[in-house]
Write a structure and sequence with these properties.
The complex is a heterodimer of chains A (668) and B (440). Chain A has 27 helices and 10 strands. In chain A, a hairpin with a 2-residue loop joins strand 5 and strand 6. Chain A is globular. Chain A starts with a helix and ends with a helix. In chain A, helix 2 packs antiparallel against helix 11 and helix 3 runs parallel beside helix 5. Chain A has a two-stranded antiparallel sheet with strand order 1-2. The relative contact order of chain A is 0.12. Chain A has 2 domains: 277 residues, ABC transporter involved in vitamin B12 uptake, BtuC; 254 residues, no CATH class. Chain A has 668 residues and is mainly alpha-helical. With 440 residues, chain B is of the alpha/beta class. Chain B is built from 15 helices and 12 strands. In chain B, the strands form 2 sheets. In chain B, strands 7-6-8-9-10-11-12 form a 7-stranded mixed beta sheet, sandwiched between helices. Chain B has a 5-stranded parallel beta sheet with strand order 2-1-3-4-5, with helices on both faces. Classes of the chains: A mainly alpha (668), B alpha/beta (440). Chains A and B meet through helix 1, helix 2, helix 3, helix 5 and strand 4 of A and helix 5, helix 6, helix 9, strand 7 and helix 10 of B. Chain B: It comes from Conexibacter stalactiti. Chain B: It holds the Pfam family Peripla_BP_6. Chain B: This is ABC transporter substrate-binding protein.
């Protein structure tokens, strides 16, 4: 028993980090309805700024501003004060430049924007400091404290106490002050709050400042306990989200309890890993359990609490752009196919690969269009299901000798089944809660399944030997009669094109079918759909199954394209990125999926940019982040929406001129 | 603070590679769609251009000696590479080495490029190039793993002037192997991924499995270890690769994760009973190494530590005031030990050609000189895929500032046909800048 208590004690330090980040997430969500994926990146930015002040007396604002002569170091109090002010400014800048302008659009646009902000902050840090570890001198004492038979550096315990004190202060602030009351009122109904004279802008901005300052302080205090790296806190966003979800994005105390609970559980698992009864795989403790723990906690709690969870997390359906009925499908597909065939057969290897990457990316985006664009479920599981198909196909091939086409088809089938399993919680959990649970699920599947030595790849990636059908190989490196001998050969690209056309027709037909109409009805208003006799559960199962099917196909194609593919390809960050790119392209139409996929890694847009403009690699992340933020601010409906509006306006103008001419003729 | 800082050349700059490099697993190969890298044509190295255009070779003739600012270092390298000392003739067609490296993103190893480039500059400035032809490092940088690796490989596969592809640091390398199979010979850097062990490439450095054998033998022979505590980062696969070697020698082990950033280091030390173990095998890097040393001290743990060379870094030394007195396993050579004349030569070349930037990856320098040696032996007109591939595999070493003996394919029975070096080295820091070779 004392051993267990000791490990509870040892988990307090990390718990403080999760709890603090969770508190920040609660603040921004409660204050402005933003699920801030950039919270960790903001904390890291402030920690780096503090480092620059302490080491060189310079203020880091994306570039360095010297504050002291000859790079003299600043002392802890000065550096800490300036860093806190900088954190406050960072919160204000984020709010006024990005989130305030997005407060009337759906939560999905804000999620996408926050992923762009994440990239910008991370890129700014990497450009200035590089990706190497930085040595930040501790602010708190590290002297060991002995208790329960173990020693713990004092800074962990002090930090835990600080976070609990902050939670108390926040609770008191929101419970007893006019500001807290105003925030709660605005969170319930912003327009109502404005009617009674409350400034929602001031309320939201103040919450952003509080959140940013809290994250910054914790970032500075925690960095010496862990390591200071550009993405160090970004990786902690999943357990922090877990804490925030457990708190229903409302309760500060529950967020703190959740954060400490997850970290203490992980500490106890560290102890358990060394016990003989703990399950092992190839002689090592079963991998991934600690990383997957937040998912298990979130999934169980949310599923148990289900509809009783409050607020706009579940009540507000994600506001999504219109999903117009596809028109002129044959013409569009023929034109697209002709362009793709031309690129594959006439252009050089670089453009061929860019076209292939774009086409596979389009299939991932189609998966998101079905599950998010059509039925309105915010999920991150599409790319994960691609991994499921790839690893199942790899295992079938290596362990059972089952190759193409049976192996990959079975892989896609399993991905479809897993997609259906994801739909089961989606019947009870919805909105941003589903987004969070599937994000944590992506981490869990990656860690527990893909990295497992027997179930997934273990030490190996998912291998995909060159595919063949009827003895004819058609892999990326297999020679093709019309090829130029360079890799990739056009044959593989043509197969990918055929698959893309097939699944596009599938999605188009779904949109036109009664099933598609039912999905849109659910997206529009789930309660009304139920009232109209729509079987919501069945429709969700259909949508998630199709999304799994499409994601699985994409995963298998990725594996064939690369020859082998590792678990990291199907990470949670990749899932967030794909949701962002799908949203920017237009998440409700097939055309949007294709436009979105132009911007995937090494896709057509990417190849064009790098070959024509030659942007140095270190600026890609910054340019990408700025691009995401700019695009979502400029057109929250995505690029496809812009094209559609332009097209509609052009048609209207043409129709208007025709009508005028007809009227003039009649008048004559 | 800045990306490239000045500092003593002997020191190393810790990298994000951490466990990923040492233990075989990339953890975060995020494919942020917009944040990826493509072909890095703009950054292509032009070592050939760096050589003065009008100065044709002034070789002193066969058997002549290299001279210039590098002195002994150049003479040592010239003796190794062979050929005719002097400057390469910039007017001749360059011999290209395709060089793929992670650079510019969350994972960032610019020192791999820097050391390879220093070797190329040395060859062109003082070692006569390759039969007078300048050597050129054609770089392609990888920000995001799979797509970028594939793009780099496709670019080099399409360039008939690229005689060989060298890999610096990297992860998710399979697209490179798949694309270049049968098209270009590949000389790998560190065999950090299991798939690299069986790749159609050769690696002049030992892999994780061989590192495990050396670690285990050292623990048994020099520390008389029976119980070992494995403390590792976020990736269990490092332990999976290394631990069997300890069991094979009759040792028992307990393993626990400290979390990727070392947040659970205390819990891991307590859980593995590190205080009572005969050795701590630490699979971390950079700041977590400093954390371990400080925690050991504060908790009164005096168990000897076996760590990777990632812990013998400048940041660790700065954080602690000196290198920790641990036993470090090195893949090729102890780059902190200037008493090794070849390591000193690398330091001199880095000072001369790379302004003394800190570095920790020494193998690209050695591998590049090995390529120059092989090219000189083959002759410029014989640098076909088949010839280069055959010569790479037949090369028996030594590698400059690296393994002294190579036997490519000799580890095939152990499932590692791509590896050529059967040994890693153990170097123990005893304080006052003194290192002891403790290779078992």
């Amino acid at each position: 028993m004392s051993d267990l208590l000791a490990f509870v004690f040892l988990g307090l330090g990390l718990g403080a980090v999760y709890a603090a980040l969770g508190l920040g997430l609660v603040l921004t969500y409660r204050g402005s309805g933003v699920l801030n994926f950039a919270a960790g990146a903001s904390a890291a930015y402030v920690a780096y700024a503090y480092l620059a002040l302490r080491e060189e007396g310079q203020l880091f604002v994306g570039f360095m501003i010297p504050l002291t002569p000859e790079g003299m170091r600043l002392g802890v109090p000065s550096a800490l004060t300036i860093s806190v002010l900088l954190a406050a400014a960072l919160g204000l800048v984020q709010y006024f430049l990005v989130y305030r302008r997005l407060r009337d659009v759906g939560p999905l646009a804000r999620v996408v924007a926050s992923s762009g902000v994440l990239l910008v902050l991370q890129a700014a840090v990497i450009l200035q400091f590089g990706a190497e570890l930085q040595n930040l001198q501790p602010v708190l004492t590290e002297r060991p404290v002995h208790a329960l038979g173990v020693a713990v550096p004092a800074d962990r315990l002090i930090l835990a106490a600080i976070v609990i004190a902050i939670a108390f202060a926040l609770w008191a602030l929101f419970r007893f002050t006019r500001f807290g009351l105003a925030t709660r009122a605005a969170a319930e109904k912003r327009t109502g709050a404005q009617l009674i004279g409350l400034s929602s802008t001031r309320i939201e901005a103040t919450n952003w400042v509080l959140s940013s300052v809290l994250g910054g302080i914790v970032g500075i205090l925690v960095a010496p306990m862990t390591t200071l790296l550009p993405d160090v806190y970004t990786l902690m966003i999943v357990p922090a989200l877990g804490a925030a979800v457990l708190a229903g994005f409302r309760s500060f105390w529950l967020a703190v309890l959740g954060g400490f609970g997850i970290a203490i559980s992980q500490s106890l698992l560290t102890y358990a890993e060394t016990q003989s009864w703990y399950p092992t795989a190839n002689g090592i403790p079963l991998p991934g359990i600690k990383a997957a723990l937040p998912f298990f906690v979130i999934a169980v709690v949310l599923f148990a609490r289900g509809r009783r969870m409050p607020d706009r997390l579940t009540v507000a359906a994600p506001k999504l752009p219109a999903a117009p009925r596809p028109s002129a499908v044959r013409v569009r597909m023929m034109i697209s196919a002709a362009i793709a065939i031309g690129a594959l057969s006439l252009l050089d290897f670089g453009w061929r690969q860019a076209t292939i990457n774009t086409m596979i990316g389009a299939i991932v985006c189609l998966s998101l269009i079905v599950v998010t664009g059509y039925i309105g479920q915010l999920t991150f599981e599409s790319i994960t299901l691609g991994g499921v198909a790839a690893f199942v196909a790899a295992r079938l091939s290596e362990d059972w000798g089952i190759g193409t086409p049976i192996g990959p088809l079975l892989g896609v089938l399993i991905a479809t089944v897993v997609g259906v399993l994801v739909a089961i919680p989606a019947i009870r959990i919805r909105g941003m809660q589903l987004a969070v649970v599937t994000l944590a699920g992506a981490v869990a599947v990656q860690e527990v399944w893909f990295r497992h030595p027997n179930w997934g790849g273990g030490l190996q990636p998912a291998r995909a030997p060159a595919p063949e059908l009827f003895g004819i190989p058609f892999g990326a490196t297999d020679s093709f009669w019309a090829g130029d001998g360079q890799v990739p050969e056009p044959g593989f690209g043509l197969v990918v094109l055929a698959v893309l056309l097939f699944v596009s027709i599938l999605v188009v037909n779904l949109r036109r079918s009664p099933s598609g109409m039912r999905m849109l009805a659910i997206r529009s208003n789930e309660s009304a759909a139920i009232g109209a006799g729509v079987n919501v559960a069945r429709a969700k199962l259909q949508a998630f199954a199709l999304a799994g099917f499409l994601g699985g196909i994409a995963g298998v194609l990725y594996a064939y394209s690369f020859g082998a593919i590792g678990p990291e390809r199907f990470s949670a960050i990749t899932a967030v990125s794909f949701l962002a790119v799908a949203y920017l392209g237009g998440i409700t139409t097939v055309t949007g999926a294709v436009i979105a996929a132009l911007g995937v890694t090494q896709g057509v847009m990417f190849h064009l940019t790098t070959s024509v403009f030659g942007i140095p690699s270190e600026y890609y992340m910054l340019a990408g982040g700025l691009g995401v933020v700019t695009a979502v601010l400029a057109e929250p409906e995505g690029a496809a929406g812009v094209f559609r509006h332009q097209w509609d306006r052009g048609r209207a103008r043409f129709a208007g001129r025709s009508a005028k001419r007809a009227a003039a003729r009649l008048a004559r | 603070m800045s990306r490239v800082t000045s500092g003593p050349p002997r020191s190393s700059r810790p990298r994000r590679r951490t466990l990923r490099a040492a233990l075989a697993a990339p953890l975060l190969a995020a494919a942020l769609f917009v944040a990826a890298c493509g072909e890095e044509k703009a950054d292509s190295s032009t070592a050939a251009d760096a050589a003065p255009a009008a100065t044709s070779t002034t070789a002193t003739g066969a058997g002549g000696t290299a001279s210039g600012p590098l002195g002994d270092a150049a003479r040592l390298a010239a003796a190794y590479v062979g050929g005719t000392p002097g400057r390469a003739d910039a007017s001749l067609k360059p011999v290209k080495i395709g060089f793929i490296n992670t650079q510019g993103g969350v994972e960032d190893d610019p020192d791999a490029t820097a050391t390879a480039q220093a070797a190329v500059d040395l060859v062109n400035e003082q070692l006569g190039g390759i039969e007078g032809h300048p050597l050129e490092l054609e770089t392609c940088f990888v920000v995001n793993a799979a797509e970028d690796n594939q793009a780099c490989a496709q670019r080099f596969a399409a360039d008939d002037d690229v005689a060989v592809v060298q890999i610096g640091m990297g992860s998710a390398l399979d697209p490179i192997y798949t694309t270049l199979r049968g098209r270009r010979a590949i000389l790998g850097g560190l065999a950090i991924e299991p798939s690299s062990l069986v790749a159609p490439a050769v690696f002049y450095t030992p892999g994780a499995a061989r590192t495990g054998t050396t670690m285990a033998q050292f623990a048994k022979d020099r520390l008389d270890a029976r119980k070992v505590a494995f403390v590792y980062g976020g990736d269990e696969r490092g332990v999976q690769a290394l631990a069997p070697a300890f069991e094979d020698l009759g040792m028992t082990y307990t393993a626990a994760s400290m979390g990727e950033e070392g947040a659970q280091l205390n819990a891991a030390l307590v859980a593995t009973k590190a205080k009572d173990a005969d050795a701590i095998v630490f699979l971390g890097s950079g700041a977590t190494c400093a954390q371990l040393e400080k925690t050991k001290t504060s908790l009164g743990i005096d168990t000897p530590v076996i760590g990777t060379d990632l812990c013998a870094s400048r940041e660790v030394a700065e954080a602690l005031g000196d290198y920790p007195r641990w036993n470090f396993i090195y893949q090729s050579a102890n780059y902190n030990d200037p008493s090794n004349p070849e390591v000193a030569a690398v330091q001199a070349a880095m000072e001369e050609y790379q302004s003394g930037v800190p570095y920790s990856l020494i193998f690209p320098f050695g591998n590049t000189l090995a390529l120059a040696k092989i090219f000189n032996e083959l002759g410029v007109d014989a640098l076909t895929f088949e010839n280069v591939e055959r010569a790479l595999r037949a090369f028996e070493g030594p590698v400059f500032a690296g393994p002294q003996r190579l036997a490519c394919g000799s580890l095939a029975a152990e499932g590692q046909p791509a590896l050529c070096s059967p040994t890693a080295i153990v170097s123990s820091y005893v304080g006052d800048d003194v290192w002891e070779d403790n290779t078992p």
